[in-house]
Design brief:
3 domains, 7-stranded mixed β-sheet, alpha/beta, globular
Amino acid sequence: MIYDYIVLGAGITGLTLLTKLKEKGYENILGLEMEKEAGGLCRTFYVDGHVCDIGGHFFQTKYKEVEDFIFSYFPKEKFYQINPRISKISLKGIDIDYPLEANIWQLPVKEQIDFLISIVRNGEALGKPEPKNYEEWIRWKLGDKICDEYLIPYNNKLWGVKSSDMDIDWLHKIPRIEVEEILKNSLEKTQDVEKYPAHIRPYYPLSGGYGRVIEAIAKDINKYIQFNTSINKVVYDENDKTWIVNDEFCAKNIVTTIPWPDLFKAMGEPIEIKAYMDKIKYNKLVISLFETDVNPTPYHWRYRPELTQQHHREFFISNFVKDSKKYGTFTETNADRFDEKNLTFKGKNLFNYTTHAAYPLPLIGKTDAITNILNHFKSKKLFGVGRWGEHQHHNHDVCIKNAIDFVNNI
């Protein structure tokens, strides 16, 4: 059999692609997924009465078609709206609202003064040229103190690479606050909560974890997916103009939603894209579930930039999952930092899960590299969509949007 489309990976992007392909009339389609179930990074584990998502998943989007897609499978009445989402940053033993730049006024006066002096003396204010790597850029934009005490250690913990090796083309993901706004917030002791953070009033399922949403989407499309199937070999037949996967599955078109380094290996590391692949890397995270004796905070999550803490983020699940057992928290830790014998979150460790891939690394040169890779394979009908196919730090709503657009444009 020759499939019209084979979709590699059945995370949220793969599920959306398969669903939309079927809606468009394609029946001769196949998804291949290495796990035993669909969902990828949007799955949920249930451990001893606790709900544990793989990362922090809430639903809020600016895209009407994405909202319609989600609510068509998981009706709006099955969600409740978190209002507002409470995100904090731990800084020198004080928890302040995210983002730091908008909430310096929540620090002691002496600290406020030091931060503000550093900010108004930044490179941009002094007329210095705009840098091209992440570390130099944020020093140029926000001054040294925010960088040294928060952004540099936090991002080094999260990404696992030096900030000086990171590009600036992903900075749309984080708040962009001007000096005037920072000073105004400090003087008025307030922040614009409608602007920062962007997902201030997200939706979350009334029952269970965010995986319930994925299960609803996957229910009718699972029959088109072969699970427990890793992608080990991918070959293009120049004569038939078809792709052969694992010496078993043949297709006219392939859409990849899996990490390019994995696909590159399965393709036999073709020399034509080898130079580009040096810039295409990802990290892995460990999701750790803890049970405590009391609820340590009323927050939904907290960022931990301190290098004395292994993990970089905490999710207080019993504060937003309505039917999760009390006093549950899960943390995220870069897999290269994780040491199960020396966990720094205080509580009973119930569960640790290492993701196959968590974030595409925003390395300098990555955007040009992935653009060249995608262009190279387009004529052979191999396409990349979503976080991994496009190697971009997309939230799951953007992955859905791009998958919808891809199918609409066929």
